[in-house]
Amino acid sequence: MSHFAKVVNGVVTEVIVAEQDVIDTFPDASAWVQTSYNTHEGEHLLGGTPLRKNFAGIGFTYDSVRDAFIPPKPYRTWVLDETKCVYECPQAVPTNVGANQRAKWSDDLYESTGDGWIIEDV
């Protein structure tokens, strides 16, 4: 069995487990694109051949030029890593976060100061 993502207007709307011959019977068979449960950030977690950069999820984009599934952009200032096809923070996560604290990203702070991390107590 394989995983397949239904892609409508470039966006994943559904992910199912099926055999290719079942997918081929669907009236919209061309909308279904195979995805690999074991592929993440362009690597196969079990050492196999990666397929389409990332395992598809609902809301992911399928980029047919890159032949890759790309997760939604979590923040407007994050940038796409072209190799892994995932969005990454434009700044390293702070290392001075205490045991009872967490680092939280702020697009507005990043755009106004150049430092987008807020360290807050939890």
Mind explaining what this structure looks like?
The mean pLDDT is 97. The chain has 2 domains: 2-74, no CATH class; 89-122, no CATH class. The chain has helices at 20-23, 107-113; strands at 2-8, 11-18, 32-35, 39-40, 43-44, 61-63, 68-70, 79-81, 86-88, 101-105, 117-121. The longest helix is centred in the C-terminal third of the chain and has 7 residues, at 107-113. It has 122 residues and is mainly beta. 9% of the residues lie in helices and 37% in strands.
Q: Give the % helix.
A: under 10%
Count every beta strand, where a strand is a DSSP E run of 2 or more residues: 11
Taking the sheet with the most strands, its summary is: 3 strands, antiparallel
Spatial ordering of strands, largest sheet = 2-1-3
Distance between the termini: 43 Å
The number of helical runs is: 2
> How many discrete structural domains?
2
What is the succession of H and E elements?
Answer: EEHEEEEEEEEHE
Cα-atom radius of gyration: 18 Å
Mean of all residue-level pLDDT scores: 97
Structural class: mainly beta
* Contiguous runs where pLDDT drops below 50 for at least 5 residues: none
Shape: elongated
Strand content: 35-45%
